[in-house]
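Figure S7 source data.
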Amino acid sequence: MTAAASFWLGTSWKMTKTLGEAGAYADDLRSAVEAGSVPPELRLFVLPAATSLATVRDRLDGSGVALGSQNAHPGPDGAVTGEVSMSMVRDAGASLVEIGHAERRTLLGETDNMVADKVAAAVSAGLTPLVCVGETTAERARGETPDVLARQVRAALSQLGRTRPTELLVAYEPHWAIGSEGRPATPAEVSEGLGVLRRALDEDLAGTPTSVLYGGSVHAGNAADLVTGLPVDGLFVGRAAWTAPGLLDLAHRSADALRRRTLHRPKPPDLVSAIVRKDPR
Ligand code: 13P
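Tokens for the predicted 1,3-dihydroxyacetonephosphate complex:
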């Protein structure tokens, strides 16, 4: 990995794509990687539905694009009908696992406690958690955003004990900014929340490489402003990256914006490892 390859750009396909559509997307992405048209500054990731993880793994193997699951159950393999375990998604090709997305919290009742169990199970299984946090419209209106974010991120880490992840990603996705009903956030609206998350991670996971991503209605028209205007280590995208050209367009826009960025330069990975090793460099 080059020192500059440290800005995450990824997409969750959510509940979309047949096997054929998933394979075609992966083939297009692979062709772009092989043609050298993915900016080297970016760490791309794709989170297919569980049904197409293995297909996408086969097509993207060796491409450098990270693959993840949108969810997994925290328990060991066994009698839990309808669920897939951390080890099963890892076996199917995931290196990342998304935990606590807003849609799972609101539509499926995922709680802070469930998120905590999943984060601990993911780390035990050798997966990198991508923990999603974010306030609802009502919480924001009541001025609770900083408290909600601090509570959610601290809860997510609460079952780790002394275990430390090799790496951890947190995506700040305000509920009101997500999906077709969502309103894109401006940098001014989310920079305070990003600061809360960064401080909580620096305090609670000092020495662990952590990245804070922004997600919620990211699209071609606002990606550059989000990259230049926010202290983030990546963008997490839904609808605008549900086609390979959509993801690649955002990759170019993000890379151009990164080159213009003065606000926040992600730490190069070699410096991160030096901090982890506690090298007196
Ligand atoms: P949209 O980009 O479609 O708003 O979705 C964002 C998201 O939920 C990513 O996890």
